[in-house]
Write a structure and sequence with these properties.
It contains ten helices and twelve strands. With about 280 residues, it is of the alpha/beta class. The protein folds into two domains: about 190 residues, Rossmann fold (3-Layer(aba) Sandwich), CATH 3.40.50; about 80 residues, Alpha-Beta Complex (Hypothetical Protein Ta0175, Chain: A, domain 2). Helix 7 links the parallel strand 10 and strand 11. Helix 1 packs across helix 9. The chain is globular.
Length: about 280
C-alpha cells in the first residue's frame, strides 16, 4: 500500500535543464528515496507520453509508477515497462468541452492576436496549445481566452507559463477539470493516499494551480522569482502557508535546485524521510 505519493514536474524541476547548476548527487539520492516500497512516484508534466519516455532515458530517471502527461490531460499507469492509459480520467474530463473537439475550439480563438498554434505533436484530444510572446500579460491573455470559450458554453482551464530556454510564452487550453491539481487529486483518491502523505514539486507557472492548492507543495530553488512570489502570495491569501515549501538549499550541503530541492521539501513535510536518505 502507498504510504507516500511523490508527484513531481520534470523540466527544470527534476530534470536539470535550466540555467542553474545541479548538485552532483541529487538525482542519485532522489532515485534512492523513490525506490523504497512505501513510495509511489508520479511524474506530472506538460510532455506527452513519448517525450516522457525520452526524458526518462536521456536523464537516467527512475521509471515512475504513474505519469500525468500533457499538462494533466492524460494519466498513465506504468507496469513492468508497459504504459496503460487511464480511460476513467479521460471520460471524467471530456464533458467540460461540451462536445466540441480541439479544432472547433481553435476556430473560436482564431482572431485572438499574438497566439500561434504549437506543433501537432504537442496537441491532444483534450489539450489545445499555443505559443505567445514571453513579454505579454499572460494572465490577461488567459482570461480573454477563458471568457471567449465560456461564452460558447465551454468549461476550460487556460494555463500560462514561460519556456525559459526558448524565451517564449506557452498557453495551454484544457478542460476545466484537467489541470495538474485535479489529476493529482484523482490519482491520490484512487490510491487512498491522505493529503499529509502526498507531496508535489514544481517550478513554473503551469505548476501554480498545484503549488497553491493546499496540497503539500515544493517550489525548487531554481524556479523563477515571479513563480515563487506568486505561490507565496496566493497561499498566504488563502491561509495555506504551511502547505508550501520554497527550497533554499542546505540539505546535505546541496543547493536546493532541481532534485535537491525536491528532496529538501520532502524532508520538510515528511521528517522520517531523513533516515531514508541515511542523513545523520
Amino acid at each position: 500500500m502507498t504510504e507516500l505519493l511523490v508527484c513531481t514536474d520534470l523540466d527544470r524541476t527534476l530534470i536539470p535543464n535550466g540555467h542553474q547548476p545541479e548538485s552532483p548527487d541529487a538525482r542519485d539520492l532522489f532515485w534512492r528515496l523513490v525506490q523504497r516500497p512505501e513510495v509511489t512516484l508520479a511524474y506530472v508534466s506538460g510532455r506527452d507520453r513519448y517525450l516522457l519516455e525520452s526524458a526518462i532515458d536521456e536523464f537516467a530517471l527512475p521509471t515512475p509508477d504513474f505519469a500525468i502527461g500533457d499538462v494533466g490531460t492524460t494519466i498513465y499507469r506504468i507496469d513492468e515497462g508497459e504504459w496503460h492509459a487511464w480511460r476513467a480520467w479521460s471520460d471524467e474530463i471530456a464533458t467540460d468541452w461540451a462536445g466540441n473537439d480541439r479544432a472547433t475550439l481553435a476556430g473560436m480563438l482564431r482572431d485572438i492576436p499574438d497566439i500561434e498554434l504549437q506543433e501537432p505533436e504537442k496537441q491532444n484530444t483534450h489539450k489545445l496549445s499555443y505559443y505567445a510572446p514571453a513579454d505579454l500579460d499572460g494572465d490577461a491573455l488567459a482570461e480573454r481566452i477563458h471568457d471567449r470559450l465560456a461564452d460558447a458554453g465551454v468549461r476550460s482551464s487556460v494555463i500560462w507559463s514561460i519556456d525559459e530556454m526558448r524565451d517564449v510564452g506557452l498557453v495551454d487550453v484544457l478542460p476545466a477539470g484537467a489541470t495538474k491539481v485535479h489529476a493529482i487529486r484523482f490519482l491520490k483518491e484512487r490510491l487512498h493516499v491522505a493529503d499529509g502523505r502526498t507531496v508535489f514539486a514544481g517550478d513554473s507557472g503551469n505548476d501554480l494551480p498545484v503549488l497553491t492548492s493546499g496540497l503539500q507543495a515544493i517550489v525548487v530553488a531554481n524556479a523563477r522569482d515571479e513563480v515563487k512570489q506568486a505561490a507565496i502570495r496566493a497561499t498566504a491569501e488563502r491561509g495555506l502557508e504551511n502547505c508550501l515549501y520554497v527550497a533554499r538549499g542546505g540539505l546535505l550541503g546541496m543547493n536546493g535546485n532541481y532534485a535537491a530541492g525536491i528532496l529538501e521539501g520532502i524532508v520538510h513535510f515528511i521528517p522520517e524521510a531523513r533516515s531514508w536518505l541515511d542523513i545523520a
